[in-house]
């Protein structure tokens, strides 16, 4: 087991601050997936998300001196940078393509998503189809949420962060995070249940 | 509190953020309200789905690609440790150039600097006066021969 595995994020960050390249690399290994998931949830595109990961770690490295464990955990600090980067990318993307995606492309993309983890997985065809549909349904439903609701929900569901940590990442109050997640859940349920109802109606009309 | 308030508390309960006092009130409400029980089940199912579908799984080798691009953009691997020092290089070079420039100008008046270096012209003038040009030498030889 590499010795880095025994160190906390904060210990690694402090060693990286002192000039240890290996310890910074260990932080990249540890957090590239989390940064990617958040960036992907905000920007939507796999390549944009990877660019955000790159830029996030570059900025984190340059501003490592400003990280203080007494103010925030390393994960919170890093994801704050990642969210700001993602919003910059998302802002410009949104202006260019949101209308196109919403009106034309989303239905087409569905199961063709390049990062759909179920593509190429050797499983029973029926359950694979069901999982792919589930993945696409959830992905499309999330895309319909406002960015702030989506981000708060993803930080909770995927990174298991506390409301307090999410509030730090989003530069918000804890009570705002409570509301964002609650409204996001309600809206997501409405969208998913509406999708299911329409799918059921469609299936019945074919009988 | 109405059902909407309780449903917000359900959301907090699912996330492990509800205090003990509010939890007791919510449990009492759920025991009596079938609409909220149904909402709680749907919220719980949604939460499970969000975790199960494992959205936005990162591509394999992501960290390696990030580190490779990182090294590429930062120059030499050891340069990565001192990014702020590398950023100072242009400033340092400017200071060195200025220092050399000031050193070269030391001891010279502004007129000399602006008009240019006249020492070579003066030397040439002196040499000409001393009869060291090719024509002077030829002329000197002719004078000597005439005087014999």
Q: Beta-strand level of the residues of chain B, as a percent range? A: under 5%
Kindly report the average pLDDT value of chain A: 83
Q: Which shape of chain A, going by the Cα principal axes?
A: elongated
Biggest beta sheet attributes of chain B: none
Shape of chain B: elongated
The CATH topology annotation of chain A reads as Rna Polymerase Sigma Factor, Chain: A
Report the count of strand segments of chain B: 0
What average pLDDT do the residues of chain B reach?
72
N-to-C SSE string of chain A, H for helix and E for strand: HHHHHHHH
Integer tally of domains of chain B: 3
Query: Treating each run of at least 4 consecutive H or I residues as one helix, how many helices of chain B?
Result: 9
Distance between the termini of chain B: 136 Å
Largest interface: A-B, 46 and 36 residues
Order of H and E elements of chain B:
HHHHHHHHH
Number of alpha- plus pi-helical segments of chain A: 8
Walk me through what this model shows.
The complex is a heterodimer of chains A (207) and B (148). Chain A is an all-alpha fold and 207 residues long. Chain A is built from 8 helices and no strands. Chain A has helices at 9-17, 21-43, 46-62, 74-109, 125-143, 147-157, 163-169, 174-206. The longest helix of chain A is centred in the middle third of the chain and has 36 residues, at 74-109. In chain A, 35% of the residues are buried. By secondary structure, chain B is mostly helical. Chain B has 3 domains: 3-52, no CATH class; 87-114; 117-148, no CATH class. Residues 76-84 and 117-131 of chain B have low confidence and may be disordered.
């Amino acid at each position: 087991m590499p010795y880095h595995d025994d160190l906390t994020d904060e210990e690694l960050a402090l060693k990286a601050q002192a000039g240890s390249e290996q310890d910074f690399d260990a932080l990249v290994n540890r957090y590239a997936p989390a940064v990617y998931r958040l960036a992907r949830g905000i920007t939507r595109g796999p390549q944009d998300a990877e660019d955000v990961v790159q830029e996030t770690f570059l900025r984190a490295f340059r501003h490592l001196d400003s990280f203080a464990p007494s103010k925030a955990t390393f994960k919170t600090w890093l994801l704050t940078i990642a969210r700001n980067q993602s919003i910059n990318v998302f802002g410009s993307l949104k202006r260019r393509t949101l209308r196109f995606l919403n009106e034309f492309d989303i239905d087409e993309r569905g199961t063709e998503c390049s990062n759909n983890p179920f593509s190429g997985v050797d499983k029973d065809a029926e359950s694979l189809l069901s999982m792919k549909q589930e993945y696409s349904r959830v992905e499309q439903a999330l895309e319909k949420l406002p960015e702030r609701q989506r981000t708060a929900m993803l930080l909770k569901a995927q990174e298991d962060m506390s409301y307090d940590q999410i509030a730090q990442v989003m530069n918000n109050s804890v009570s705002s995070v409570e509301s964002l997640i609650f409204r996001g859940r309600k809206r997501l349920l409405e969208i998913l249940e509406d999708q299911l109802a329409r799918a059921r109606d469609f299936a019945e009309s074919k009988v | 509190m109405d059902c909407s308030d309780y449903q917000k508390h359900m959301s907090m309960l699912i996330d492990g953020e509800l205090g003990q006092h509010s939890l007791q009130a919510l449990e009492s409400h759920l025991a009596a309200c079938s609409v909220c029980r149904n909402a709680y089940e749907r919220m719980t199912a949604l939460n499970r789905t969000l975790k199960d579908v494992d959205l936005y799984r990162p591509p394999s080798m992501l960290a390696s690609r990030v580190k490779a691009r990182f090294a590429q953009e930062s120059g030499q691997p050891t340069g990565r440790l001192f990014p702020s020092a590398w950023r100072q290089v242009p400033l340092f070079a400017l200071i060195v150039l200025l220092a050399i420039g000031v050193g070269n100008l030391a001891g010279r008046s502004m007129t000399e600097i602006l008009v240019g270096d006249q020492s070579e012209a003066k030397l040439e003038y002196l040499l000409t006066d001393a009869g060291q040009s090719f024509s002077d030498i030829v002329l000197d030889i002719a004078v000597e021969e005439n005087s014999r």
